[in-house]
Amino acid sequence: MIQKTTFNPLTTIQSAQNTAMKDKTPAEMTQTFGDFLQNALNSVQSQEKNAQVLTDKYMVGQADISQVMIASSQAELSLQLTSQVRNKVVEAYQEIMRMQL
């Protein structure tokens, strides 16, 4: 049985884009971006917990292997996406620090 998959960070991106650019100060935009990052990290954490719960259920015979594999793949992809975004942010920060004033 395959369950419907959702990816929360994309929903968060869309809602952040709708509200972040409308008449906000830089401080407010920074706070909104910080909230966006926190929500994305919480989503990754919840997907990892879900994969662990399904793995535990599979061990006692209460879950199907396909559910476990799908949840594990989702958690893995979310973690890879998070680390790639982090790498790009660090790279952008380093580039800004190299700029001449």
From TrEMBL:
Keyword Nucleotide-binding among UniProt keywords: no
UniProt key word Secreted: no
InterPro entries: FliE
Main location group: other
Pfam families: FliE
The entry's keywords: Bacterial flagellum, Cell projection, Cilium, Flagellum
Official protein name in the record: Flagellar hook-basal body complex protein FliE
Gene name tied to this protein: fliE
